[in-house]
Write a structure and sequence with these properties.
- The chain has about 400 residues and is an alpha+beta fold.
- It is built from ten helices and 22 strands.
- The protein has helices at about 20-30, 35-45, 100-110, 165-180, 190-195, 200-205, 255-265, 310-315, 365-370, 390-400; strands at about 5, 10-15, 55, 60-75, 75-90, 115-120, 135, 140-145, 160-165, 210-220, 220-230, 235, 240, 240-250, 270-275, 295-300, 300-305, 320-330, 335-345, 350, 360, 385.
- It is globular and about 65 Å long.
């Protein structure tokens, strides 16, 4: 891609590996944190220069937007997706249309590479709607009062085993790979992604202990694991430590229950916190007092559909659907059109048609509903969805939903 001059001083270009330090510094400043050498090196292997863009002004890097090449689980399938990351523009060059140019090129590149969707975690949600992103995945954060939560005793077979991340890594990878493709919102992990996940930098600890690892051994071997830390604390009345759950992944209900029972009963702690579980988290139906989970709802992944027919044909649908949809995309007019969408739990097609539309969707609605966690019917009142044929909305809203709520817990 050739340099694209915005004016006499500002250009957008593809970086080289040597630009990584500057990119890291610009992004860190953009999100108002001080970068550190550990995190700089831990993240370097994930940097894909060919999937990145930088902005230069007066020879200095003043803006950046990157992507990680990964697959992500969607309802009934796994699709390639541009995992947008490190988006920032220095304060001195804001309000010049730079982010708009970066986003447009980011979308075009993803489409050319055959990725029907791009996704990101939003630093500020207000930024992304104007570029056609839809809020597709939400998360629940928990701050569990372990003294008040009653965890039923079970007769699950197996045992909890502690070990180092290095010694247990193969088991962690195996368990995650067995699960991720069936949970919309979870992304594949290569060796480099696991390296970063387990890097355990001082920044990632945020005042808590070093990363700890436990696995659950069932009758057929290891079927679950938890990555966790402890934030120790004491008062005059004794210990009030907090277990910080980084992630808990299980392939069986027995492992899930045993691991949570362990995490909620660590000695010298009185609480457990985790920043992301699904909105259908089973703990609400298991513990004695769900209010003591102290849950708070927040946005997680924002989805931007850059190739409507390819994206809608790639996922599966909870119920049979046969509907003509019209999609409007003001930011990417080439993405607008009318298509006939047919789908089921086993297959889907989405083809251009000249038939009259039965349902109109703004591109933000397509992204919001794509992971199966947002009802199309909920988007009618804010003007992102309009029913043209009576009954089309109910049919489409039912089909787009999925039996597992999407969620995400891994920043990228």
């Amino acid at each position: 891609m050739a340099d694209a001059a915005l004016n006499d001083e500002v250009t957008i270009e593809v970086p080289t590996p040597e630009d990584w330090d500057d990119i890291y510094a610009v992004f860190s400043a953009g999100i108002n944190i001080d970068g550190d050498p550990q995190s700089l090196e831990a993240e370097r292997p994930l940097f894909e220069p060919a999937r990145s863009l930088i902005v230069r002004a007066g020879g200095r890097v003043v803006g950046t937007l990157g992507a990680n090449t990964r697959q992500i689980a969607v309802p009934g399938a796994v699709v390639p997706a541009a995992h947008g990351c490190r988006g920032a523009v220095s304060a001195t060059v804001r309000r010049q249309g730079i982010l708009t140019r970066l986003m447009r090129k980011h979308f075009e590149d993803a489409r050319e590479l055959g990725e029907p969707i791009t996704l990101c975690w939003a630093s500020e949600a207000r930024i992304y709607g104007r570029f056609g992103y839809g809020l597709s995945v939400r998360r629940l954060g928990l701050n569990v009062n372990a003294r008040e939560v009653t965890v039923p005793k079970g007769e699950e077979p197996g045992r909890i085993v502690e070990g180092s991340a290095a010694d247990l890594r193969d088991a962690l990878v195996k368990v995650y790979d067995q699960v991720y493709a069936d949970r919309p919102g979870w992304s594949e992990r290569t060796e480099q992604h696991w390296d970063f996940r387990l890097a355990d930098t001082m920044m990632s600890r945020q005042g808590a202990s070093a990363l700890r690892v436990v696995v659950h051994e069932g009758d057929d071997g290891i079927d679950g694991y938890a990555l966790w830390r402890v934030r120790g604390n004491w008062t005059a009345n004794g210990p009030i430590g907090d277990v910080v759950v980084v992630e808990q992944v299980s392939t069986t209900p027995e492992a899930y229950r045993a691991l949570w029972r362990f995490l909620l009963s660590v000695d010298l702690t009185r609480s457990a916190s985790t920043w992301a579980v699904g909105v259908d988290e089973p703990l609400f139906h298991w513990v004695g007092e769900p209010r003591q989970l102290d849950a708070h709802l927040c946005d997680a992944l924002w989805i931007r559909v850059v190739d409507v027919p390819k994206a809608l044909a790639a996922r599966r649908y909870a119920a049979p659907i046969d509907v003509v949809i019209e999609v409007t995309d003001d930011f990417m007019p080439e993405n607008s059109g009318t298509w006939r969408l047919t789908g089921s739990p086993g297959a889907a097609t989405c083809t251009p048609t000249s038939e009259p539309a039965e349902l109109w969707l703004d591109i933000r609605a397509v992204g919001a509903a794509y992971m199966g966690g947002t009802s199309l019917a909920a988007l009618v009142d804010i003007g992102l969805v309009k029913e043209v044929r009576h009954g089309a909305l109910a049919e489409a809203a039912t089909a787009f939903r999925w039996h597992k709520s999407p969620y995400a817990f891994e920043l990228f």
